[in-house]
Amino acid sequence: MLTGVMTxxxxxxxxxxxxxxxxxxxxxxxxxxxxxxxxxxxxxGISVELEFVPYEGLHDKIVLGQGxxxxxxAVLFDVIWxxxxxxxxxxxxxxxxxxxxxxxxxxxxxxxTVDYKERRYGMPWVLDTKYLFYNKEMLAKAGFDAPPKTWTxxxxxxxxxxxxxxxxxxxxxxxxxAEAVICDYGTxxxxxxxxxxxxxxxxxxxxxxxxxxxxYMAASIKDGTTNPNSREYxxxxxxxxxxxxxxxxxxxxxxxxxLANDPKQSKIAGKVGVVAAPGVEGVSTASAxxxxxxxxxxxSSQHPEETxxxxxxxxxxxxxxxxxxxxxxxxxxxxxxxxxxxxxQEMVAAAKVGLxxxxxxxxxxxxxxLSLALQVAIQKALFDQATPTGALTEAASSYQP
Length: 401
Description:
Keywords: Plasmid
Organism: Phyllobacterium zundukense
CATH topology of the largest domain: D-Maltodextrin-Binding Protein, domain 2
Protein name: Extracellular solute-binding protein
Mean pLDDT: 94
Structural class: alpha/beta
Strand order of the largest sheet: 2-1-3-11-6
Helix content: 40-55%
Strand content: 5-15%
Distance between the termini: 59 Å
CATH superfamily of the largest domain: Periplasmic binding protein-like II
Number of domains: 2
Number of helices: 17
Largest sheet: 5 strands, mixed
């Protein structure tokens, strides 16, 4: 009997997990390492080997890991991938692992991050959308007492700032040919009441709100209100430009608020304002895109129980509240916690408006193909190589659901 106990202990100590994360926004690499260290202290029988890749390489790493025989146990995945990953048996269905406490405590909108066809393929972890950040000092210099509430008002305020010489290019965006530009485009598309696809999965982004969104983007490049380098920027580029005082407005994720307010790395600390992204008069009061991410167990994992234990630790309310300055929690009651609110009341106030409005990118099995076609089309319009109508029409005709 004693031998059996010792054998079990040895086996438990041999459990080694591999986990894949991104090396950028939201929970940064050091915070993930710190969380994991704490998990290992509480679970001495489990060790976790961490790997970090840029967002742009995350999808393919997950897919290739499945066929390598040496794949990952826990993976961070984007809200746009559950359809593909569920259909292709990459993620474990964890619907039956979700406890009543989780169902009751997690914000309803957060579950859309991991849902596909009424099944759940992980736990939501990074609950995020893009917000409009603004430089309070520049806004006051331009004679405005409040940030813009509509996209039209944003453009008019930016033009005044440019004309007064307050800043050369008032707005910075993440418009490089990457998923980042889809998030910015989708935010504006949602404000104009547009859709990516119709109920049958066919493209409709080439008309109505989708076309108006790209018209808006292209016009802002031509009139100089948008920094033309935005066409090559990702989110970290936007953060650097904004916190260096070279932009009055920027669309970005939650994580930028505390970093841009950090005097150790920002020239505008204490001058950063944030609100939900604007709306369109008569159509919407504000806008938001679902940029959330979840943590899931891969089908190739040899240790699903231990992996789930690790995932539930990272997504627990206690862990999330501790690191709330990097990413706001998925737990509803966290938004009343003084530890979460302290120093970022303005960010939380913006989140209370933006998070309930998060517009989904399509839950399409072929999402990667759709996104790439749209990225190319948007770039063509922004570089004036095609009209917005022509670029989007071409993208729509090239996509086969």
